[in-house]
Amino acid sequence: MSKKPLILGIESSCDETAASLITENEQGIPVVLSNIVSNQEEVHKKFGGVVPELAARSHIEKIDWIVKKAIDESGRKIEEIDAVASTAGPGLIVCLSVGLSFGKAIASAINKPFIAINHLEGHALSPKINTNLDYPYLLLLISGGHSQYLNVQGLGKYKRLGTTIDDALGEAFDKTAKLLGIEFPGGPKIEVFAAKGDPNRYDLPKPIFNKGGCNLSFAGLKTAVLKISKKINTEQEKFDLAASFQKTILEILYKKTIIAFDQFEKANHVKNKIFVIAGGVAANKQIRSMMTNLCEEKNFHSIFPPINLCGDNAAMIAMVGLEKFKLKQFNKLDFPAKPRWSLDENAMFLKGAGVKL
Ligand code: KG4
Ligand code: ZN
User: Are residues 319 and 275 in the same domain?
Assistant: First the structure.
């Protein structure tokens, strides 16, 4: 039996401090040996969102014991690690710097290669952990920080088909929740409120619904929710607003996903069409069931990675590290943190006022 690479992955781009050890089995399928994630909900909930300085401080307090725990739980020794992979971007620079510096320090202490990872590449390849999923596949990444449709063609080969031009979907859920008086991160609670409400009570806008291909926009929706939330008083009205919000999101995703399917099919002439839905918002049961039905209708095979690999984690970072290690794609120790780092270098920057679609 040949010695399989052992990779330590470290993630600290936003509000999760995470470390993981990964190797692969005889068939070359990535296998997770440990996957430790510590979130900071308690730190940020009273502020209604992630406070960068507090997040960075919390990463500094936790990173050493999280990495130690990941090594201990893997049953392997630090000397056995073949490379260290840290998220270098995109994300909050003060947060990225913690995991990046820590990863570089370990790599140099054990005299092994260092690999800088794009966080989005981690999400994009995460469905390959523990499975033998083949390229290409279509990915919808919906989390607190990202909302993108990606044509995943192979390691380092990504074509962005669509992205949000303003807020991420999880952010829209969290902001709506905040307006309804729910603590951060309120996204999951919206689903609970929505189950008790009338989805047809409020008519909400669907920004760039009829233009912009499969690009997304949620800022106008949030503004509409803000206006209505000022006028409502009863619990039932809150439930109705949550239900109307969720229904609007479902309608937007339904339409934009059909456009993404079409673009994916034109770019890849494959029989087995795969659609992966990842990121924290993929936990939403209504979104899951709508996407499952849509895939059946359009002859796509739907895949929802396990929730612990959907949200931010270091297993996905170690997984990309493993692929890059096998290709000897190492980085120097002066590799910088990159708060902005697109997966598709050719994709246009589509954020802010003045964006033309
Ligand atoms: O991927 P994730 O765990 O972390 C990052 O954003 O990096 O995603 C967290 C996001 C939050 O905005 C949270 O409110 C949202 O996912 N979320 C949900 C649900 N569960 C988590 N949004 C809607 N419905 C849910 N059930
Ligand atoms: Zn993420």
Answer: no
Give the integer Cα–Cα distance in Å for 102 and 10. Answer: 8
Whether this prediction's pTM lies above 0.85 is answered by: yes
Inter-residue contact 1 to 25 (CB < 8 Å): no
Domain of 171? 134-304
Task: Report how far apart the first and last C-alpha atoms of the chain are (Å, whole number).
Answer: 54
pLDDT of 121 > 60? The answer is yes
Does the beta carbon of 197 lie inside 6 Å of ligand 1?
A: no
**In terms of domains, do 120 and 198 share one?**
no
**To 5 degrees, how large is the angle CA 106–CA 87–CA 78?**
25
pLDDT digits (tens, 9 = 90+) for 69-89: 999 999 999 999 999 999 999
Tokens of 42: 């308690």
Cβ atoms within 10 Å, residue 306: 10
Residues 177 and 116 in one domain: no
Same domain as 176, residue 288: yes
CB of 173 sitting under 6 A from ligand 1: yes
- Residues 6 or more apart whose CB falls under 8 angstroms from that of 148 comprise 120, 139, 140, 141, 160, 162, 163, 164
Regarding the beta carbon of 191 and ligand 1, being less than 6 Å apart is answered yes
